[in-house]
Amino acid sequence: MTPMIYILNGPNLNLLGRRQPEIYGRETLDDVAAACAAIGAEAGLQTRLLQSNWEGQIVDWIHEAREAAAGIIINPAALTHTSVAVLDALNTFEGPVIEVHISQVHKREAFRHHSYVSHRADAVMAGFGVHGYALAMRHMAHLLG
Ligand code: DQA
After folding, report:
1. Are strands 71-75 and 97-101 parallel, antiparallel or unpaired?
2. Is the pTM here over 0.90, yes or no?
3. Which atom of ligand 1 is nearest to the CA of 108?
4. Is 105 a pocket residue for ligand 1 (Cβ < 6 Å)?
5. Confidence of residue 1 (pLDDT cuts 50, 70, 90)
6. Is 21 exposed, middle or buried, given 0-12, 13-18 or 19+ CB atoms closer than 10 A?
7. Ligand 1 and 103: CB distance under 6 A
8. Main-chain dihedrals φ then ψ at residue 87, nearest 5 degrees
């Protein structure tokens, strides 16, 4: 069976492309889904991109991934900096976890410099724009290959 990669996105990323484009660019989450699916097709991976503004929904999808996915790519958005619940959920997942941030969080406000999710992530991308998701997909293919 083709391994499945969950690509999880936290609060406000539904507005990607329209939200602060000077920081996050003009590409949408649909563009990200298409780019990741194309890389997945080349690499023999299925992808499922999901977004929620609700912390509990992200936790539920991580639990679902325990059975359904071989790897998780996650942009937790603001939950990165606040959510022990998302970290605890990721700690129950056995496959590779790659954390993605579109912006270079370390050159932004100090409150964006700490990530709970980084305590679990096997790799972290920041500042590559939405291209970071594509790079994460390629690394995921490498890890699972
Ligand atoms: C973000 C960075 C976070 O600090 C912010 O809260 C986001 C998006 C990024 O992709 O650069 O919503 O995760």
Report:
1. parallel
2. yes
3. 4
4. yes
5. confident
6. exposed
7. yes
8. -60, -50
